[in-house]
Write a structure and sequence with these properties.
Layout: E1 8-11, E2 28-31, E3 34-54, E4 64-71, E5 80-85, E6 89-112
Antiparallel strand pairs: 1-2, 3-6, 4-6, 5-6
Amino acid sequence: MAGTKINKRFDMARLRRTYPFVRRKPRYAFKSDDIITFETAALTFTIADTGSHIFAETFTSAPIVTVTSVDTGTNANVNVWVSQVTSSTITVRSSAIFTGEVHIHALLIEEGRT
């Protein structure tokens, strides 16, 4: 599993090199040469144990996905997992039928720009 390190931290408030009498709070930004594609979504389950979502972002390959259940019904003890993920869709399953939402976070980190 490849990863990327974003280790260059820049203080955006001091980028212009002006130093007033009262110093502003630092605003940090991270820069990387890698292409990062990130999407979040909420998938609604209504008395179901399977749900699908079509990504709005364009992923070049299958992204890394995490899912978390947010219960709005009466069944609060449920586990959710990713049963299938492709570059355009995701299928989420749960351990029991429930009514609530599943929050989806999809992340794809590609090698640097060429």
